[in-house]
Specification:
Layout: H1 2-22, E1 27-31, E2 34-38, E3 42-47, E4 50-61, E5 67-80, E6 85-97, H2 104-118, E7 121-126, H3 127-133, E8 153-157, E9 161-165, E10 172-174, E11 180-183, E12 189-193, E13 196-201, E14 204-208, E15 217-219, H4 224-233, E16 250-254, E17 258-262, E18 269-272, E19 277-280, E20 286-290, E21 295-300, E22 303-307, E23 316-318, H5 348-356, E24 361-366, E25 382-384, E26 390-393, E27 399-403, E28 406-411, E29 414-418, E30 426-427, E31 450-455, E32 459-464, E33 471-474, E34 477-480, E35 489-490, E36 494-495, E37 506-508, E38 512-514, H6 555-562, H7 564-568, H8 580-583, E39 593-594, H9 602-608, E40 610-613, E41 616-619, E42 627-628, E43 630-631, E44 638-640, E45 646-649, E46 655-660, E47 667-671, H10 680-723
Parallel strand pairs: 7-42, 8-17, 9-16
Antiparallel strand pairs: 1-2, 1-43, 2-4, 3-4, 4-5, 5-6, 6-7, 10-11, 11-12, 12-13, 13-14, 14-15, 18-19, 19-20, 20-21, 21-22, 22-23, 24-32, 24-39, 25-26, 26-27, 27-28, 28-29, 29-30, 31-32, 33-34, 35-36, 37-38, 40-41, 44-45, 45-46, 46-47
Helix pairs in contact: 1-10, 3-10
C-alpha cells in the first residue's frame, strides 16, 4: 500500500511540474533551419474570450545572429479556472514587424515561417500571468454595476456568538410521519415540537419558546425524535474546528440581512507600518482604525463600512474612492492585514481582482448530447423583469426566462431554449437581446454574465465570468453580491434567491471568495432542504477558519493554501458543482459539455475544434495543433513596445533596445538614452519620449514579475496539496 501511495504521489507531483514547465517562458519552436523564440506575451485587450496582444520574438538561422522582432496576435481563450490555465486557441497573427530589416523578401519568408509554425502550435498560459499583464480593459464597465451598498444590520460581539439567519419570516413545514415541523427558509437546523423550538449547532443543542428571541438557552438533551431527525440531516462526518466549540456560544437569530463581527475579548490593536492606521488582531474580521478620525472600518463582502462607536446600529457604507489615503499604503507583505489591499482601489491587488472579473470559464457544448430539465412548484408563474421585455419564473429553482415567443433556461453556465416553458430544451446559440439590461435589483441579474461566443452546426462555444457567481466590480474593486434582498418562493417547496449578507463572505487574491468561521461544518445543513441555498452555487466550498487557524498569522501559507480548494474546485459550473450534493455528480463533467481539461477523444477534439478568421468560422483541420513548444534556456527578459521595437532588461534595471542593423541580419544593442541634439526643444521632447518609454517598459516588467510570482505560488500550493493527500476531497 505504501508503494502504491508513493507511486500516486509521484504521478501527481510530476504532473504539477510538467504543467509548470509548459507554462515557462520563453518558448522555442524548431522549424527546419530556424529556431523561433517566443517571449512571454504582453496582453493588450480582452473582450469576452477574445484576447489581443503582442510578443517579442527572435529568429535564428544556423550560425547567424539573432533577428529580433515583434508579432501582434488575436486568440480565443479556452480557459480552465480549476488549473488556472488557458490555451491560446485559433491564434491569428495579424502583423509581424522586424525593425530596420529592409529586405522585404527576407521579411516575407520569416513571416511565413513564423505564421505557419506559431499558428499550429498549442500555447498554454497561466491565468495569473494573463491577468497581471493585461494593459487595457473597458474602464467604463468598472463602475457600471448598479449595486445596493446600504449597510446591513451589523452586530459586534466580544464573546463567542453565532449568527443564525432565517430568510424572512419563519416558514414551518411538517416532517413526514411525525409531529415535528422544521423551519423551511434557513440553512440552519431548527425544529419545532409542541410549543418549543430546538436548534442544533456542532455538538450543542438550544431551546426556545420563540424563534425570534435572544433567549435561546443551551440544553443537554432533546426529545428522541428531534435528535433522530438531526442525525439523518447532518453530514455523517463533522469536524469541531473552533476552539470555542467546547462551550456553547451565544446565538443571534435574525430574519433580515445581517452580519456579525466577533473579537476574542476587547479590541486588541497593532500598528500598520508607515501609516496612521491600526488593525485589530484578535478577530477573523478585517477591522482597521484610522487614528486621525478615530473611525473604525470593517471589510464585509468586499465593501467597507465605518463607525465611530462599534455599536450595532451605527454603520455607514464608505465608497472605496473615499477611504483614508493611508489605506493605499498598507504594505503588500510583512503584515497579516495585507489581504485587504484587494479592496483598496489603485493597488496592484485591486487591479488584478478587477481584471479577474473579465476572465471567462469557457466550454464547448455538444448540441446533440447536452440537455437539462426544469421543475416548477405547480404551473409556471412568471414575473416581469423591470427595464426589459423579459420575465422570469418565480416558482422554479432553475433560472427560466421568457422573451417573446421563446423560453430560456440557464443551467450551470449554459443557455438552453424552448418554445414551451416546460421544454423540451435544446442548446441555444443566441441570448435574448435585452439580457444585458437586467437590473441588479432582479434575482436573475447574474445570468447576464453567462455568454455565448460562437457556434457551429455541432457545438456552441460558451463561457461565464465571475459575475455569474455574484462577484461584481464597484469603484475599482470587487464585491460579493448585489446587496439587494430578493423575495424567495414559498409554496410546497421553498426556492431561495441569491443572498449577499450573513455569511462573512471575504475575498483573497489566492483563494477568491470564502465564508467566515461562523459557517462551520456543524452549524449548517443543506440536506434538510430539497433545493440548494446559494443559487448557482460555487462559493459554498472553502471555509475561512480565520483567527483560530492562522488567518492573521499565516496569510501567505496557511490562509492561501488552506482555502485554495474553495476557489479552484468550485468555480467551474461545467463540472456540475452546483448540484453535486443533490444528484451525485459533483466534480464530474456534464454530458455534452467539454472544457479544456476534459478527457475526450482526439476525434471529438478534431470534430469540435474551430478557428475564427475575420469573424467567420473555418474548418481547423489544416491548422490544428500539430506540435508543441518547448521551454527555452534564454532569459525571459525581452519585451516589445507598441511600435514593435524589442527591448531587453538588464540585471541592473537598465533597458537595451535590440536593433537589426542591416540586411546581413546582424543585431546590436543600444541603451535607452537621450542623444545630444542641437535643438533644445527637440532634446526636451526626446527626453520626455524616452522617459515615457522607460516607464511603460518598467510597468510591463513589474506586471510580468507579479504574474509569474502569483503563478508560482499557485503551483507550489497545488504541489503541496497533492503531496499531503489533496485527492481526499472535502467534507461538507
Amino acid at each position: 500500500m505504501k508503494k502504491l501511495i508513493l507511486i500516486v504521489l509521484t504521478i501527481l507531483v510530476n504532473n504539477v511540474f510538467a504543467q509548470e514547465e509548459q507554462l515557462t517562458w520563453p518558448r522555442e519552436i524548431e522549424s527546419g533551419k530556424y529556431v523561433i523564440t517566443l517571449y512571454q506575451p504582453q496582453l493588450e485587450t480582452l473582450t469576452g474570450n477574445k484576447l489581443d496582444g503582442r510578443m517579442a520574438i527572435s529568429v535564428k538561422k544556423g550560425t547567424n545572429d539573432l533577428i529580433f522582432g515583434a508579432s501582434w496576435f488575436t486568440v480565443m481563450l479556452d480557459t480552465d479556472k480549476s488549473s488556472r490555465t488557458a490555451a491560446l486557441e485559433s491564434l491569428d497573427i495579424t502583423e509581424i514587424k522586424f525593425p530596420e530589416i529592409k529586405d522585404k523578401r527576407n521579411i516575407r519568408k520569416l513571416k511565413e515561417a513564423i505564421e505557419a509554425d506559431v499558428e499550429s502550435t498549442e500555447i498554454v498560459m497561466s491565468l495569473d500571468k494573463i491577468i497581471a499583464s493585461l494593459e487595457d480593459l473597458d474602464k467604463d464597465k468598472i463602475n457600471a454595476e448598479q449595486l445596493n451598498n446600504e449597510a446591513p444590520d451589523i452586530y459586534f460581539r466580544t464573546k463567542p456568538t453565532v449568527l443564525v439567519i432565517i430568510d424572512g419570516d419563519p416558514k414551518l413545514k411538517s416532517v413526514d410521519k411525525s409531529n415535528l415541523e422544521y423551519v423551511l427558509n434557513t440553512a440552519f437546523f431548527i425544529v419545532k415540537k409542541d410549543n418549543s423550538y430546538y436548534l442544533k449547532g456542532e455538538n450543542h443543542w438550544y431551546k426556545s419558546n420563540k424563534i425570534e428571541s435572544i433567549y435561546w438557552g443551551p440544553i443537554s438533551s432533546v426529545p428522541f425524535d428531534v435528535e433522530k431527525l438531526a442525525k439523518e440531516k447532518f453530514p455523517k462526518e463533522q469536524e469541531n474546528t473552533e476552539e470555542y466549540s467546547k462551550d456553547a456560544p451565544n446565538l443571534i437569530v435574525v430574519t433580515k440581512p445581517s452580519e456579525l463581527i466577533i473579537t476574542k475579548g476587547e479590541l486588541a490593536y497593532e500598528p500598520i507600518k508607515e501609516t496612521e492606521l491600526l488593525y485589530v488582531t484578535n478577530t477573523e474580521n478585517d477591522i482597521i482604525l484610522d487614528i486621525n478620525s478615530q473611525t473604525h472600518y470593517v471589510l464585509i463582502n468586499g465593501r467597507w463600512y465605518a463607525t465611530k462607536s462599534m455599536s450595532d446600529a451605527d454603520w455607514n457604507f464608505v465608497d472605496p474612492e473615499k477611504l483614508p489615503k493611508d489605506f493605499g499604503s498598507i504594505p503588500a507583505e510583512g503584515t497579516s492585514i495585507s489581504s485587504v489591499r484587494s479592496s483598496v482601489p489603485g493597488t496592484a491587488e485591486a487591479k488584478e481582482a478587477v481584471y479577474e472579473q473579465y476572465i471567462p470559464q469557457t466550454a464547448k457544448v455538444d448540441r446533440k448530447t447536452a440537455s437539462t430539465k426544469v421543475e416548477y412548484d405547480g404551473e409556471p408563474q412568471f414575473e416581469k423583469i423591470e427595464g426589459t421585455d423579459m420575465s422570469y419564473a418565480k416558482n422554479s429553482s432553475s433560472t427560466v426566462l421568457s422573451s417573446g415567443s421563446k423560453f430560456y433556461v440557464i443551467d450551470d453556465g449554459v443557455w438552453f431554449e424552448s418554445s414551451s416553458a416546460k421544454g423540451p430544451w435544446v442548446v441555444s446559440d443566441k441570448r435574448p437581446d435585452s439580457v444585458d439590461d437586467i437590473p441588479a435589483s432582479s434575482p436573475v441579474y447574474n445570468v447576464k454574465y453567462v455568454y455565448i461566443y460562437d457556434s457551429t452546426p455541432d457545438v456552441v462555444y460558451v463561457g461565464y465570468t465571475p459575475g455569474y457567481y455574484h462577484s461584481y466590480m464597484y469603484g475599482g474593486t470587487v464585491v460579493y453580491g448585489t446587496g439587494y434582498y430578493y423575495q424567495p418562493w414559498y409554496g410546497y417547496h421553498y426556492y431561495p434567491r441569491p443572498v449577499t449578507y450573513g455569511f462573512g463572505v471575504h475575498y483573497n487574491p489566492y483563494t477568491g471568495w470564502g465564508f467566515s468561521v461562523g459557517v462551520s461544518y456543524g452549524w449548517m445543513t443543506l440536506s434538510i432542504h430539497s433545493h440548494g441555498y446559494w443559487g448557482p452555487g460555487g462559493y459554498a466550498h472553502g471555509y475561512r477558519h480565520g483567527y483560530h487557524h492562522g488567518y492573521h498569522h499565516g496569510y501567505h501559507n496557511g490562509y492561501s493554501a488552506g482555502y485554495a480548494r474553495g476557489r479552484y474546485d468550485s468555480r467551474n459550473a461545467y463540472h456540475g458543482n452546483r448540484r453535486g450534493n443533490l444528484d451525485g455528480r459533483s466534480g464530474q463533467t456534464r454530458s455534452g459539455i467539454n472544457t479544456r481539461n476534459n478527457s475526450i477523444s482526439q476525434s471529438q477534439k478534431d470534430a469540435i475544434k474551430t478557428s475564427r478568421n475575420n469573424g467567420t468560422l473555418r474548418n481547423d483541420a489544416k491548422t490544428k495543433a500539430s506540435q508543441r513548444t518547448k521551454s527555452s534556456t534564454k532569459r525571459n527578459d525581452h519585451y516589445a513596445d507598441r511600435d514593435g521595437n524589442v527591448f531587453q532588461r538588464e540585471q541592473n534595471g537598465n533597458w537595451k533596445e535590440k536593433r537589426n542593423t542591416n540586411t546581413k541580419t546582424r543585431s546590436r544593442t543600444n541603451n535607452i538614452q537621450t542623444r545630444p541634439n542641437s535643438s533644445t526643444g527637440q532634446r526636451t521632447q526626446t527626453n520626455r519620449n524616452t522617459a515615457q518609454k522607460r516607464q511603460n517598459l518598467n510597468k510591463q516588467y513589474n506586471n510580468r514579475s507579479r504574474g509569474n510570482t502569483t503563478s508560482r505560488n499557485y503551483s507550489s500550493n497545488r504541489s503541496s496539496r497533492s503531496m499531503s493527500g489533496g485527492m481526499r476531497g472535502r467534507r461538507r
